[in-house]
Amino acid sequence: MSTAPWSVIDIFDDVNDKLNAFHLIFDDILDSYAPIKEVKIRSRPNPCITEEIRALMKMRDYWRKLARKTNDPLAWAGYKNFKREVRRELRFAEQEYAETQIRNNPNNMGCIWKTIRSFIPKKSVNRKSYSKEDKLVANKFNEYFTSIGQNTIEKIQSLANECNYNVTQSSFVPRWYPLSQQFTFRTAECSEIEQVVNSMATGKAPGNDKIPLRVIKDCLPAILPTLTSIVNNSLTSGVFPSMWKAAEVIPIHKQSDYEKPENNRPISLLPILSKICERTALNQFMPYLVLNERLSTNQSGNKMWHSTETSLIYTTDKILGAIDQKETTAMVLLDMSKAFDSISHKTMLYKLQDIGASTSAIDWFRSYLANRTQVVRVNTKISDPLPLTSGVPQGSILGPMLFGVYVNDLPSTPKHCLVESYVDDTKLYMSFQPHDSGNIVAALNEDLVSIRNWCFENGLLLNPNKTKLIIYGSRQMTAKIPEFRLTLLGKDLEPSETVKDLGVNFDKNLTFNEHIIKTVSSCMSALGQIGRVKHAFRKDILIMIINSLVFSKLYYCSSVWANTTDTNIKRLQGVQNYAARIVCNIRKYDHVSPALKSLKWIPVKSHLYLRDAVMAFKCMTGLSPEYLSNKFISRGSISGRATRNSQKLNIPLCKSATGQRSFYYRIVSIWNAISPTLKLSQCVSSFKRNLKLDLLKKFLS
What we know:
single chain, four-stranded antiparallel sheet, globular
């Protein structure tokens, strides 16, 4: 690679010519030294079997054949010895293979599960077979996926006519900024491109050029200057190369009949080089948006220090605060159909101008969105290419950010309700006294009409069948509410007992019973599968697997529901106990405390306290969203006097035990009790490590 004539590429001014020249040189070298070959595999080979094991298996089979032929006791003994030797070597090889796979992909859940399931005995699973030829199926799927945008526009127009609404799609007027305040792409340094490439996960599937990221990383020292030149040429010229706009779509089955296109999710496989360019653009654009506060504070998706957990903490505290004031809260969780696929490119460019993108930057985004094509792959057959006239590709780097920009003005649409969004998950909510429910129904319906009209104008389709309504409150207050019914696109929305919001199951009284029960069931099922193949993993790898696949699920968004009952905490503790029995190989009725102590696993209740304390540290050190950190006020800032407790947080006043369940109240109590030494920790990892050591010492003693 280092001896290739990369300097030839600098002769060209057009980015498409540069990229074509790059591929001519790069692909020619790969075809010479690492050509792509099609190999027909009759059965999937066992990756654990080495030449030494294969030789042992050959000897085992020889002695088995001899023993059956002669029935000689010595021959049977020889066969049994070789059989044990093969089993022992296979066990060691499986452990080594599993350790390599998991250590190389510690954060890749799919790879970890694939490794685990490879050791579970099962019947061979054939690839999906369709009633028609794969090529015809691929064309059918592609026609459906590429027509989603146009079909959505037709559905919106039909619904708008039914609602007597005139869709203009020209009502949005972008704001104007002086040139000094507009965003413009700059050229990137080689070190930036190198960092982007090294930060990308190696296991990502390649696009239609079939160049995997592993090859690019191996060749990076030789191609880095050329790659940087191509990316910079694209950003400064406002042209996104045509070769990078061709996607290969893999249909991922969601539900029901997999032969129907609507039951599949299209995932776009894009060229790795295009993702490098996209990541470079995103790394420049996002800091500008954050620094200049161009994104809505009600949108928590794709922002630094924001997460599903912080978003849910904020809304849950609002609900608990309302319950403390003897109010109930009505919440509508909106569902948008095919949101990413139906974005209007024209409207998208207006929205980019509205947040400060310069003319040259908008030209680049226009080139990025325009003239895209895609093919669909079904098994080994590829469909004919078709153009994409709307949407952003799912699987792209810029897609989530662009969608966030597209819906940036949505939270300002309602007049009465509060709005919170996480990418395409949006919810409206409003607190009220039960006797005022009639006025609230009218206000919510008015805001739903405003949201509906906004979606009409922006080409997004609301799905009333999946939109949920729930009324939060105490048992006494919710019982006082008369019939409560809303209307969206002609469908009545009636209150649900439970809803799922950003992966957490909420019930109307915020007990989180259903969430805990479902989480425990899912974790126990995962542990059952892990337990079946624990022989294939060393102890440290087994712990890593359980941390990745079980405990990450067990503690998901724990600061939202850590205020649940002791009964639910005991259910969660049962999951940790089962995991300890698997790792330490102890029986069901043996005492589990020695195992937990030997593993140095603090109890679930202590772990929930630790996670709350870490979130408190983030809030106090500016590593959390402002909507959380701005709530905490020191006593000294209120009294204006310097006392020994002036640095402690002011304790909020709550009328009931429900108010004390809020994240705000819990965090104040936790932070005030933490030692001053811990509070002075330099970073989150240091704080977490030291606090965990303190909790572990208490547990072990």
